[in-house]
Design a protein that fits this description.
The protein is mainly beta. Helix content is about 5%, strand content about 45%. The strands form eight sheets. A four-stranded antiparallel sheet has the order 1-32-31-30, covered by helices on one side. A four-stranded antiparallel sheet has the order 2-3-4-5, with no helix packed on it. Strands 6-7-8-9 form a four-stranded antiparallel sheet, with no helix packed on it. A hairpin with a 4-residue loop joins strand 27 and strand 28. The radius of gyration is 21 Å and the shape is globular. The two termini are about 35 Å apart.
């Protein structure tokens, strides 16, 4: 009898064997093999019976399916990035092993791994019929349907941040430059120099613009189509994490012990809120409120328009992963705790412990959409609203 754990080990052996044979990759391409597509859902995970369905029910969700991805066990890969891309849930580990699951059934559509890797992927995104992954030096293009390796090309410069994809362009930071790399001609088409190095990943701000922040606290709203600066702002130090965008502003957690809001139109400062400690986590924004975790203080909710403090919850941590019937769900990956919160008062409506969950991904719809939970070792479950 083949148990679920045996099936997982078998799948990884097939993955390794196909890699050794070339797995159908184009000649001369150094990419590990392709996984045979599975049309039927895999058997439930051995531990799926242990999923606390009552805990998810309290948050408003029911289990749809459980599955797994082919992570690199030999090199001790652990989950790194995940996103829903059309009808696929694409998951990568920190050794560049990449798997695509059907969002409908949980079946493993394909898996592959890049050889001669120069570091883990900085980003994985969907561009039409392709999945595109980047590391510091290269771009890899994969057929989204078959998992076949289509192309790899060098970036025009070494990337220090994840890129912002826009049509044919990949816009990323390289040292103190923001660079636009055109996939079609495999060349840099424009570059803009900042006053200092850029290490914080940029954030899309809408239209054709994105926000980049350099180590000296310079904030720039760049038009990614032209490379022209649309607006600038200034903090006293670098950002401590990626900013968040909503309500016509970018909200930046500062190492200078401040939460900043800059207007997207011209980069002008909307407000600054001083905190007791440096901020090192990305804020969450929902319904006119910015939620920021302040070490030693707790979760603080401030008004997105004027920066006025609305409430503090000393026990709340993590980021918003979904909205259920108008109430945010915060997930703290450090403790595996999920809390359903009243956004107006900050009160905890429900609190549950989610075992063996390293990451929660929404199904493309932030409000009342599907949820996917992923363990550090590649176990995946889908939950639907109930």
């Amino acid at each position: 009898m083949i148990t679920p754990s045996t099936a997982l080990r078998t799948s990884l052996v097939i993955l390794t064997a196909l890699a050794a044979l070339g797995g159908g990759c184009e000649a001369g391409k150094s990419v590990k093999g392709l996984f045979v597509r599975a049309e039927e859902p895999p058997p439930p995970l051995k531990g799926s019976e242990a999923i606390d369905r009552d805990a998810y029910a309290k948050l408003g969700y029911a289990l749809s399916w459980s599955s797994f991805v082919a992570f690199d066990r030999i090199n001790h890969g652990t989950v790194d990035k995940a996103a829903v891309m059309g009808d696929l849930l694409v998951i990568t580990d920190d050794t560049t092993a990449t798997s695509a699951l059907s969002t409908t059934s949980g079946s493993l559509k394909w898996a592959l791994q890049v050889e001669n890797r120069a570091g883990k992927f900085k980003s994985v995104s969907r561009m039409g019929p392709s999945i595109v992954a980047t590391n510091e030096t290269e771009v890899f293009t994969i057929n989204a349907e078959t998992g076949q390796f289509v192309d790899r090309q060098p970036l025009s410069r070494v990337a220090s941040t994840a890129p912002i994809p826009m049509g044919d362009l990949f816009i990323f930071a390289s040292a103190d430059f923001v660079v636009a790399h055109a996939m079609s001609i495999q060349e840099q088409v424009w570059a803009y120099r900042f006053p200092a190095l850029i290490k914080i990943d940029p954030v899309w701000t809408g239209g054709t613009t994105a926000c980049f922040i350099s180590n000296d606290g310079s904030v720039g709203i760049l038009d990614c189509a032209t490379g022209m600066m649309q607006g600038t702002g200034k903090m006293y130090d670098n950002a401590g994490a990626m900013p968040a965008v909503s309500d016509g502003a970018v909200f930046v957690p500062g190492l200078d012990q401040s939460l900043w809001a800059f207007n997207l139109a011209d980069g002008s400062r909307r407000w600054q809120v001083r905190t007791e400690t440096p901020l090192t986590t990305t804020p969450s924004v929902y319904n006119g409120r910015v939620f920021v975790s302040v070490p030693g203080t707790g979760m603080v909710a401030v008004n997105a328009r004027n920066g006025g403090q609305e409430w503090v919850n000393k026990t709340l941590a993590g980021r918003i992963v979904a909205i259920r019937k108008g109430n945010p769900i915060f997930f703290d990956s450090a403790t595996g705790t999920a809390r359903l919160i009243d956004p107006v008062r900050g009160d905890v409506i429900e609190q549950v412990k989610l075992d063996n969950v390293a990451m929660i991904v929404n199904g493309g719809s932030f409000e009342d959409g599907d949820l996917y939970t992923i363990s550090a070792r590649g176990e995946v479950s889908k939950f639907i609203t109930r």
